[in-house]
From TrEMBL, chains A, B:
Residues 523-583 form the Peptidase M24 C-terminal domain. One of its GO terms (molecular function) is metalloaminopeptidase activity. Gene3D superfamilies: Creatinase/methionine aminopeptidase superfamily, Creatinase/prolidase N-terminal domain. It holds the Pfam family Peptidase_M24_C. This is Aminopeptidase P family protein. Keywords: Aminopeptidase, Hydrolase, Metal-binding, Protease. It comes from Absicoccus porci.
């Protein structure tokens, strides 16, 4: 590992750079990047999905969030890279760390295509105070990464209207309807995929193509290598006057735009932003909200996807609970079994993210990835947390269940129950239109906060429709979640509790925001579950629960049985009836 | 009423003004104003504590909030003044109403001393779009209000350290410690009263003197008529170099300030703001937060005040519940009885606001004031809501109880229970430091929202220490409540439900924010009740409640009995034991 940092430092010295920043991103502000863009992981050895590495000439530090504290500590051990825990009191921000460590007049370098314009402006302001100089046109990692994977180039496929609910033409018209500027820059790959009903396989678990687009009032262009396009899409584009331009041509084309351009400074890459010469109107890309509010077809199709997923998950739970201790199984083999069950469902595309299968203390690593080095056999004892999901043509799923494999401690039982109470409280929440994720999160966390416990991640994230399993703007967390919930938004409900070195628990369903009564007080709203899989009631201490919570759980399990049992064999069905038994309090 | 508007319109014509705005305020942004400043009430006949009147040459309209919709509708009937319901969909803002009704080049007039600088800037921006002209130096109401009450001029008294916890000198030093500007403008009368430990009787229920102050790093001045000052305060000022300046001299003195001046644009009056020639640093006045976080002495003393208040309230409840239907009583006579019981407690100063004693459908008028015209006899049936409080030397109280005087409907019973569940949920809330009133409100409203019901007022407001019964910055409501709760803040917890023409219910305690566990997750916080008076359990449907809520109520009532019973006679004590009986679910 140190060799890589040394090589990078040689390049930094050549360019007279004193600090180099390597984020986890690509040119499109993508959360999970393809291997070509895994520079931070390549340099640091930390494989989590989020983190920023700062390399100085003598020191290096990596910032990541609460999901990855334990994992990063392990993976960075001995690397000479300090771990910076984001959100923990006393952790400096990246910019203040750099300002503190560099002398006035020093140079900070990075590749401006990997940072949003908003981020670069924050850096500029912070660095300006100490007269630090920015060099933003340098991909130094590329110079030292000899076997760097190439940019992905998978074939696209057309996402049918029967799944998308609206055609490309309808969507472009809707965008133009609300666009006040002359042009709209579309730089996030899932925005492009949604708008053109286009999918591909450029990134594992994120079925999109690396592409940009510009929609003007009288013109629409997509920036993608023509040779990748499927026949249906090419035909559609030709018929509806969508211009196909080479991927890199975006950088030259933006210089020719005139009038006003709508740009989201929080997602466009800074290099591209600074090529625009026309008047910029900064605003959130309107596609974000349109994409988040699922249309009727998307909702109906998503329900089909969730039923398939529920069948696979229930079969998995049956296999796991009836076989543990009898046949050999491990974190990795169980994850493979689950994948195989999902894959046997019709219209399965791929897993919607890398399954987290975490036994006992591995569960405390929020985004644990089992590997041959860490894999452990499952025994008939303790807790086994499995966070997984699938992309089907009908929709995307994301579910976590925590399975009781045998005896558990009283403390594990209490934590299991309190976390499930959090889950239920959020599913039961009712609110007036206008409430945000920051507010709803209060309701979710009460049962754990009452016991001075918390979990250091959001309670819920938006879920894309055969796109990213994480999407905005809907999010449920107690800070910085300002978007009011709209009917049609699909969000996860996934409280948890993580005790380092002991266990991890998470209970996750996906929920749909729906309109309830509208009266003089306003528009009341609530959530409907989309996920129909038993929670493992073997982990519950029913005495800790309120009767209303038990009633909710019993009603939920009755529906699970009703929906899933017709697709099971007799043995599985009998087992499910027991798994869904009503609890008494 | 029309005569007054006609007279005002004559004056408007003389000044060539097409619209004149009359708010509910004084020169200090005071919520409850003294009679001298009741211009809006004088002109419109609407006596509520909040509202803005706009008089055009042919039309007039009055804006008020949800607490006063019913009352304002009644009082404005036949006045020719349209009621504008703030916060209701479709209601125009004051500025957009004026812009819509006036032609370009028209003149809008008001007295700039009655508006904050921030408000005037909003008007200027809105009016500028239609080239409306502002005239802000005109008190037209003064010209037509022949018997206008004079400005108050009551004698001050020193608020002893045994009640205040800190001396004036300590407070001024603390202000200087956090002041980054050269001077701090102190324009709210309770800020002045808090800083100098000074009280008076200028405004009913608000024991302050009309005064300003300026604190500089090397100087402190108070603007108040010298002849009003008590000997102790005058001596203190002399000894500690506090300059006493005439009340009106603030307008000339601010013109001599140099360097930087810290000013809160949301509370300083616009006329005064625009007299300042030095550099202005706009920020919330630091005294607001210092004043809101009660010190140990204030907290301890407030607990004494609440015990006195609990004795008076319990005696009142005993009298009411045992005598209704047997002796004549009415809204007004009951309120008088309650006042007399409070006044018989040692160190009682005055009621902390005008008691709301509202029987049956009057309860639906959120801030109902009984008068000889509206007073009704109390019968042994229905609900009687009493919202009241007292200033004692030890502290300020604010409490609402809704009494069951006899038979009530099933719907009343359910609403009574749901509103109490809201109250209990907020008292039981636990949160991590950083959470705001916008977030806590979610927890409070769930039990009513679940039934598609709501109340159109905040769930809680800050309470001053022998100052205003309403103070900021702590507030609990689901929109625009951004201040994190700090230990030592005292806030009301007062959900309610109001069914027009039928009944009103409100359950109010005051609660103290306290620090609970501090661990790796952060600083956990919660509320402790300060109010110890029985809720009328005759109104409850226990089956609607969760066991945890019933347990909270039983524990609360056990404490009420323990605290209050030693101060009652035997008959009252027996009655209280029954009133505090444990409920079973």
């Amino acid at each position: 590992m140190n060799k890589k940092l040394d090589a990078l430092r040689q390049e930094m010295k050549k360019e007279n750079i004193q600090a180099y920043i390597v984020p986890t991103s690509d040119d499109h502000d993508t959360e999970y990047v393809c291997s070509h863009f895994m520079s931070r992981s390549y340099l640091s050895g930390f494989t989590g999905s989020a983190g920023t590495l700062v390399v100085g000439l003598d020191q290096a530090a990596l910032w990541t969030d609460g999901r990855y504290f334990i994992q990063a500590k392990d993976q960075l051990a001995g690397s000479g890279i300090d771990l910076m825990k984001m959100g923990v009191e006393g952790t400096p921000s990246i910019s203040s760390y750099i300002v503190d460590h560099l002398s006035s007049g020093s140079v900070v370098g990075f590749d401006g295509r990997l940072f949003s314009e908003a981020m670069v402006e924050i850096y500029e302001e912070a660095f300006d105070k100490k007269d630090l100089i920015l060099k933003t046109d340098l991909d130094l990692v590329d110079r030292i990464w000899k076997d760097r994977p190439v940019l992905p180039h998978t074939s696209t496929f057309h996402f049918e209207k029967q799944y998308a609910g609206k055609t490309m033409v309808e969507k472009i018209a809707a965008v133009r309807d609300i666009l006040s500027a002359d042009h709209l820059m579309i730089t996030k790959v899932d925005q492009v995929a949604w708008l053109f009903n286009l999918r591909a396989h450029d990134i594992p678990s994120f079925p999109v193509a690396m592409a940009y687009a510009i929609v003007s009032q009288d013109k629409a262009s997509i920036y993608i290598d023509d040779s990748r396009l499927d026949a249906t899409s090419r035909e559609l584009f030709a018929k509806n006057h969508v211009t196909i331009r080479p991927y890199d041509a975006i950088y030259t084309d933006v210089q020719t735009l005139t009038g006003t351009v709508s740009v989201d400074p929080y997602t466009i890459n800074s290099t591209l932003y600074r090529f625009i010469e026309a008047d910029i109107e900064e605003e959130e890309n309107p596609i974000e909200l349109m994409k988040a509010c699922k249309n009727e077809v998307e909702i109906e199709q998503t329900k089909h996807a969730h039923l398939k997923d529920a069948i696979a998950m229930t079969q998995f739970m049956y296999w796991l609970k009836t076989n543990v201790g009898k046949i050999p199984m491990s974190e990795m083999s169980a994850a493979q079994k689950l994948h195989d069950l999902r894959a046997s469902q019709a219209d399965f595309i791929e897993d919607s993210f890398a399954t987290i299968a975490a036994y006992k203390e591995h569960g405390a690593i929020v985004h644990y990835q089992s590997s041959p080095e860490t894999d452990v056999p499952l025994q008939p004892e303790g807790l086994f947390m499995v966070d997984s999901g699938g992309h089907y043509y009908q929709g995307t799923t994301d579910i976590t269940r925590t399975f009781v494999l045998g005896e558990i401690t009283e403390y594990e039982r209490k934590c299991f129950t309190w976390a499930l109470q959090c889950h239920i409280r959020l599913e039961q929440a009712t609110w007036l239109y206008g409430c945000t994720g920051e507010q709803l999160d209060m309701i979710a966390r009460q049962p754990l906060w009452k016991h001075s416990l918390d979990f250091k991640h959001g309670t819920g994230h938006g879920v894309g429709h055969v796109l990213s399993v994480h999407e905005g703007p809907n999010v449920i967390r107690w800070q910085q979640a300002y978007t009011p919930f709209e009917a049609g938004m699909i969000t996860s409900d996934e409280p948890g509790i993580y005790i380092e070195g002991q266990f991890g628990i998470r209970h996750e369903n996906e929920v749909l925001a729906v309109n309830l009564d509208k009266n003089a007080y306003g528009q009341f709203m609530g959530f409907e579950p989309l996920t129909w899989v038993p929670f493992d009631v073997d982990g519950l201490d029913v005495d800790e629960m309120e009767p209303a919570e038990v009633a909710w759980l019993n009603a939920y399990h009755a529906k699970v049985y009703e929906k899933v049992s017709p697709y099971l064999n007799e043995q599985q069905r009998q087992w499910l009836a027991h798994a869904c038994r009503p609890l008494i309090r």
